[in-house]
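**Fold tokens**
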Amino acid sequence: MAIAQTTSSNADQHGSTSMASMPGMTMDTGPVGGNSAMQMTTMDMQDNAAQSMVLIDQLEAAHTRNGNGQAWDAEAWYGTDTDKVWLRTEGNHTAGALDDADVEMLWSHAASAFWNTQLGVRQDVSGDDHRTWAAFGVEGLAPYWFDLEATGYVSASGYTAARLRAEYTLLFTQRWILQPELETNLYGKSDPRDDTGAGISDMQLGLRLRYDATRQFAPYVGFVWVRHFGETADWIQQRREPVFDTQIVVGLHAWF
């Protein structure tokens, strides 16, 4: 029960559909008519009213083999239970340089009670090539309360990519929360300008333990394991950088 309650809270933070608006879910409110009917109509209008949220999922400092660095993963949305506009960004900064960063703007539509389809654009803001991609994907809650994201990308120059992410929230107490996360990036063909090879380019496994000082503010500590594969790993080795890296991270999780 504790895990379900925590995951439901996490789902609300990510803009998932509320229980009252799920298909097939009804509430016993007594006799219909008069003030009761008016109250139910008002509740329905309020449930589908436009809302907004800013979520800083990760804002952290990391100690890596190449030195200290910083990373972020944040998103914001505005809209109703059915349709939302999303803005999300993630990236990292290491050894005085912006390694990898992007910004996405997406239109999200509720396809079911737990799943949303997303369509929009992504802009890479690091490296020499500031590439623009068309983005399309799905996100939502899978069975056993796994939060999943799968997004595909197509650039005007014919490059294709995909990003897959899975998160799980495990409640130890009402304040101590453990969050495992797995993310991988894939590319349709090699791109020497960005040092990315075809196939699975990298995989990242994170394990973060946070303390909810308040409902909206939670510092955390954790470990992150990063592994590169294929041609991406070959190019990294040519730069005499590690293919596998273990990071110690300290950061902040917050939402507004």
